[in-house]
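Let us practice reading a record.
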Amino acid sequence: MRFQNPVIVIPGITATDLVDDYPLKADEIWTMLFNKEYDRVALHPDDLRYEAVEPAHVVAGQLFPIYNDLIRALRHELSERADRPTPVFAFPYDWRMDVRSTATRLGDFIDEVIARTRLLRHYGKADDLAVDLVGHSMGGLVITEYLAQRGRRSRVGKVVTIGTPYLGSIEAIVKITTGMSLITGPEPREREREAARVTPALYQLFPSFDGATVDSGGADVDIFDAANIQGSIVDSLTEFVRLYSVSTRHDERRNHAVRILDDMLDGARRHRQNIMSFRTVAAGIRQDDWLAIIGVGERTRVQMTLTGTHGQRRFAINEQQFVNDLGRRDPRSQRTGDGTVPLAGAIPPFLPATRLVCVKDDDLEFLELRDRLMVGLGGFHGLLPRINLVQRLVTRHLRPDYRGPVWGRRLPGARTWNPPIEGIEERGY
């Protein structure tokens, strides 16, 4: 008998509600749309595992509803019989934390999911049960970190990543600099910038692809070097230390702030090195077992210029950074993206270019009128999991006998295309 692996869906950054359950009645302190209490999600400068405003106990709540359709589709389409459901779980997590620690928690959850699945009568005879993982945006980084940590002990069958910033996004720099970006929405909020600057995961989204951050002469700049970070960020961290540190003397506040920044940048660099050195074979996964879906065709920041000299940098943020050269005039251009993640940042360094599947907003079908509207309001990147085509691509990858129509596009500039989905229709730009 064939056993369909249970599936875990892992959301992107900010797409899990955060709840403070210290009060007698738990408070929602972060939701994607209505409730964003930045002072209560800000982390403590003395220990970035905990909140600056204590006492508190902030934990992950529910996933943002943007994933509901994907989860429902997988639950329905992966199950051959209604009385033999395929378990599809969500993995909410605290998106503020270091991706590496979140990956460790994912490992514990995978063990729990396998144990729970074995309790289903129709899985009782399944040997060597594994899970399939579906990650959107930063969720794909959590998956990759988990596989890098566990190696061949990972207990993973197949993987799908959707719009994952393997090599980062310039929006992360914008977020930490201004408090506003397409990562969490364009509307500024009180204390948003300060909270962003003590969020380790945001630094792990800094871009490192060629040409991402350059000086005024066009030379690449190492964004993980604290000397290349805008000075106002250290100023803000120093004030944060003044407000919340319980052990730092007045004359040590700036040094403490510098150490916080250095630690977050060092963690971000080590995370990126893990991504760059990862190989699927080390985790016991074939390249055919990994489907990477990438959004293209949207105006996206593809490069940022850093003005000033080393140690006195400033980030030049402007509307001219949004570029989309992809189209009929230049179908090979990689100066494009999904609106949030540039194409150069979305390419997994451990998969051949021929294996990648690209989608555009043109792939929204006639009846997806509401989703077309939402793309216009919330951006293509965030809506990727809602697109019917993306859901069918995920389903076909996890269940090859699924017969829903699927299509896609090769990576711009790739001469050949050999995606991991058999029978996929190729469409042009």
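A brief commentary: The radius of gyration is 21 Å.
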